Amino acid sequence: MFEFSVRPLYFGDETQGTLLGYVVSGYAIDRNFVSQAAAADVTFTAGDRMVVSTLDAKRQGDLELRSDMLAATRSRPVELSFRGERYLTTATDLSEGAVVPLRLVVLKSFDQANRATRETNRLVGLVGVLALLAGGAMMLALSDFVTRPLETLAAGVRAFGFGDSSHRLPSRGTREVIQVVEHERLAAVQQLRECKGEKAP
After folding, report:
1. Helices marked H in 45-109
2. Number of domains making up the chain
């Protein structure tokens, strides 16, 4: 099947020039062309014969056996099922008043659309699980960054309360933790001075 156009070629202008011939340009409408142009399976029929189709040979045979069903697609879309796959099918007449009717039959696979939806759902689910894992890991890292200096500070304050001044206070952490540590160090130094002052006499 071919799509083509014809233009007369004149020597001079069209009204007074000499007709030299015709320029015919076109291209073949074959399986490769149709499969690139359509997002669904497409079939061209001339009369009851299939001319070009993106379907494989087995499905073409099944579609030819259901030519009576294809006749119903002129008025409304019809659901067809063959080879275990369901299609929504519609047809358009491309040849008004021609001797042999040329029709374009478009078949959209429900199963293919369902597969695409399942793949999208699977991808969204995987991204969600990865986001949860990454969020959990970040939460653990941040909580460890915040709570470890607080735990060390609390242990140091308890040790200092029992008179153990050798216990180390944290040197890292949030700004608030560092401020509390500095305050505790100043308080410890002050307390040591006071203790030394009391022992001096």
Report:
1. 57-65, 67-72
2. 2
pLDDT, mean of residues 144-156: 74
Judge whether 169 and 152 are in contact, CB under 8 Å.
yes
pLDDT for 27 equals 72
C-alpha Rg value of the chain to the nearest Å: 42
Do 21 and 90 reside in the same domain of the chain? Answer: yes
Together in a domain, 43 and 141: no
Q: Which amino acid is at 200?
A: A
Instruction: Count other Cβ atoms within 10 Å, centred on residue 89.
Output: 22
Residue 146's pLDDT band (boundaries 50, 70, 90)?
A: confident
Start-end of H helices in 30-109: 31-37, 57-65, 67-72
Q: Where in the sequence is the domain holding 88, given as residue range(s)?
A: 2-109
- Residue 27 phi/psi, 5-degree rounding, is -150, 160
Unique residue bearing structure tokens 């969204």: 124
Most confident of 137-141, 161-165, 175-179: 137-141
Whole-angstrom distance, CA of residue 52 vs CA of residue 75: 22
Which residues are 11's β-sheet partners? 18
pTM, two decimal places:
0.44
